[in-house]
Amino acid sequence: MAKSIYEEYTELPQKLLDEVKREVEAHNLKGDQVKRVLDRVRTEFENAMISPGEAIGIVTAESIGEPGTQMTLNVFHFAGVAEVAVTLGLPRLIELLDARKEPSTPRIEVYLEKDISKDPVKVKRVAASIKETKLWEVADEFTVNMSQSRIEVYPNKSKMRDFVITETQLVKMITDLLKNVDARANKDFISIKLKAETFELKELYQLREKVRELHVKGVKGIKQVLPIKKDNEFVVICVGNNLKEVMKTEGVDFKRTVTNDIFMTESILGVEAARQAIMNEAIEVVENQGLDIDIRHIMLLADVMTSLGTVKGITRSGITGEKESVLARASFETPLKHIVNATLKGEEDKLNSVIENVMLNQEIPVGTGLPSLIAKIKDQK
Amino acid sequence: MVKKIVYKFDVKTHVLVPKHIKLKKEEISEILQHYNIKKSQLPKIKKTDPAIEELEVEKGDVIKIIRKSPTVGETFFYRVVV
Questions:
Q1: What is the CATH number of domain B12-81?
Q2: What are phi and psi of A207, to 5 degrees?
Q3: What are the domain boundaries of chain B?
Q4: Which residue of A37, A128, A206, A216 is 20 to 30 Å from A109, comparing CA positions?
Q5: Is the Cβ pair A248, B6 closer than 8 Å?
Q6: Cβ-Cβ contacts under 8 Å, A258 against chain B
Q7: Which positions 12-51 of B are in contact with A (Cβ < 8 Å)?
Q8: Scanning every residue of chain B, which has its alpha carbon at the shortest distance from the alpha carbon of A254?
Q9: Is residue A241 part of a domain?
Q10: What phi-psi label fits residue A361: left (phi over 0), alpha (psi between -120 and 50 degrees) or beta?
Q11: pLDDT tens, B25-68?
């Protein structure tokens, strides 16, 4: 009986109905009481709805702008025990809304598969396999042997064990990655010779530097890894910007792995994921600052930024530059440029939107200014 | 090189990606009528978007997106393929 009553209120969102249901059960309400509750909820819901023509854009702008004045201007902040610098506060929000191509502190939050994420030893191993490792990190010494005209690399046995690499693998890697050399494993060093018959000493020194920086293991671009505990499982925070490769790494649960780079998210997971990422990042910044911005404002912003199918920032090269009206564009930034260009192209301004009508001291199409009379003229016979 | 199992990951299963559905012709006109708009007024999605790779879309198709909204639970959003 009580169930059918909810079906009469289809205009209410499912989430609200579920909430009412829960409360009704908790307080043991019956029949008429439930109906009264629902009626009241509906009235409140209708009152909370925004009326057509409401200028929600400006409300959003002010709702985000005002708390923005209270945010910290500190660019770097060491978040708690995690020794990773993160851009927070206003600089991060600006970066986000301007849709800068790369965040100033790129970061990937790597979640691990269920059986690994709770075991600190396994977590460390996966973290080590993600971190970019270069040859100098597993070797003690790089010497240039003049008499034999070769380079000698002395690998560090214990470090190699840490990174799970063998000497033969190293030799193979060197020959694979550097095309013009011969590498051979000797008793306690690896000798590297240039294939060319004659060469200058300078080339040998250059080769040594190249060998030092050789990519041995891990994901390119991941400079730092840091396992931290988060809700009774381990999460690896990576400094760097190579989501695709990290996702492919063994042991990584790619379904939950996210980055703070919006464009990276867009290219791998699509616009909708980018929209969600913008929201998540913005909410994180706001909450971190102890502020309270209604999520609807952030949703509107994220929707606008992704409405063209790609992420566009709120800048003159982003969505503001895509506006149809010349005067609206000119009113934002670099007015002369826009007006001159419009003149050269002979653009037309239909005065459909708000800013251009403000400029011309006319009624703006917002609120009660939105509806207008359209006369139906009868055909004269 | 250390062994690495490379498996192709499925974009659709990622937490950030909501469900994308390609709409039929009738459904499209129904939606346009409901909102009283033209197709060009819908938000856009690129044809090459990774999330709709497997739907085999053409330009002008409309994609229905089922989002999880923190305010109302589940909402529908529509994007036209460009």
A1: 3.90.940.20
A2: -60, -40
A3: 12-81
A4: A216
A5: yes
A6: 15-16
A7: 13-18, 20, 43-46, 49-51
A8: B14
A9: no
A10: left
A11: 999 999 999 999 999 899 999 999 888 888 888 898 999 999 98
